[in-house]
Amino acid sequence: xxxxxxxxxxxxxxxxxxxxxxxxxxxxxxxxxxxxxxxxxxxxxxxxxxxxxxxxxxxxxxxxxxxxxxxxxxxxxxxxxxxxxxxxxxxxxxxxxxxxxxxxxxxxxxxxxxxxxxxxxxxxxxxxxxxxxxxxxxxxxxxxxxxxxxxxxxxxxxxxxxxxxxxxxxxxxxxxxxxxxxxxxxxxxxxxxxxxxxxxxxxxxxxxxxxxxxxxxxxxxxxxxxxxxxxx
Length: 232
What we know:
By secondary structure, the chain is of the alpha/beta class.
């Protein structure tokens, strides 16, 4: 493994992936919409030589294409892509959403993942892997968060469809559903003891990248720290 692109690198999950991948000696291109947050991440990690900062946005195809070119320039070969992006969500009954709000919800939380898949999967190296990060509400509904269940269930089916279309090809497509609250940079103060930490999630994701055949998927789930780095 030489070149990993993490989209959403300054988020709670993304930071854990970046940290663990750097520790394995991989070259990591950390992508995010806000350069200031990427610089803060670089500083927190001690400005490692194998970290590349690539500000960019996958909200539309032109932005994703520009990010692809930056990633290629930074990494040379893109061996793996992890997409850990989602827009902030507010609890609200489904029928209280206006149509424009709902369309924006789909664009920010689902279409962005489709744009990433469409842009980056064709440019993965032979044997490369694309991992989308999803959540457990694909299978259950929290009060006021039905909209989140909708987009997460749709993301899962998108990855299933893409994986089926890519059977027989050398690339690996996975979704990792994180079925836990995340103890990350933004939640550290209120996190409970049983929440998965950002670095535990990062360790699991880098294990999938390093040994994709042991994590056949295409849909994988991570519920507890007992599963970290363990297939099945």
